Amino acid sequence: MLEEYGFFAVLVPMLKGMGEEGLKAFARAGSKLWASFGYTTAQEGRATPHVSEIAKSGAAEGIFPIDVVVYPDVLIDRDFIADNISETYENRLRVAGAKLTIDGSPQGFTAWRDRPYFDPVGEYASFYKGYAAVTNEQAMDLVFGVGTWDDLRYETVDPGVLFSGTYTFIFLADPPVFFAYARQTSESAGEVL
């Protein structure tokens, strides 16, 4: 079984195997589906530079009935993002920012939690807490080293912990970053967050 982030190691080569026309057909069908539900903008979510270039080519051919925003993976190519980011659409498409995935999802039991999952589906040890997709150092370098683009993150957070006295919030204005960090209190002493 391939879980969450590990799935991309198989998905990316598979998508490349579809060829440019296959990927354009996939993008065209997806955007038409979103449009059929009345949406005027769709978010691609996590692109590679290769997929972004194919989307640009398709956009130039007029394949999108609605606006599409693309968020390339910052772990793959930061320079591509910096070179292609735009505040305006060209042929209904724009690279809107960067995507950083630091863990999985709660429904897949791969989100990195502060305590073990209760009865996860599958063969997991009683102490299993999910896992990170990147190291803390990688995430911090990418968050605080980003350019002036939107930084789209997918992180699963336990609201009970987030809104407890364990977290302090900081807003940095330049570049704009909303950041929560854990501070150790007597109640949280010894917990891994």
Describe the model.
The chain is α/β, with parallel strands linked by helices and 193 residues long. The chain has a single domain, classed as TIM Barrel. Helix content is 33%, strand content 18%. The strands form 3 sheets. A 3-stranded parallel beta sheet has the order 1-2-3, covered by helices on one side. Strands 4-5 form a two-stranded parallel sheet.
The CATH architecture is Alpha-Beta Barrel
| Alpha-carbon Rg, integer | 19 Å
- Biggest β-sheet strands, sense, barrel: 3 strands, parallel
Averaged pLDDT:
76
Order of helices and strands: HHEHEHEEHEHEE
Taken together, the total number of domains comes to: 1
How many helices in DSSP terms? 6
**Number of strand segments:** 7
| Uncertain runs | 167-193
Instruction: Let me know the CATH homologous superfamily.
Output: Metal-dependent hydrolases
Overall, the morphology is globular
- Under CATH, the topology is which? TIM Barrel
- Structural class, please? alpha/beta
Q: List the strand order in the largest sheet.
A: 1-2-3
β content, as a range? 15-25%
**In CATH, what is the class?**
Alpha Beta
CA(first)-CA(last) distance: 27 Å
Oligomeric state of the chains?
single chain
The helix fraction, in percent, is 25-40%
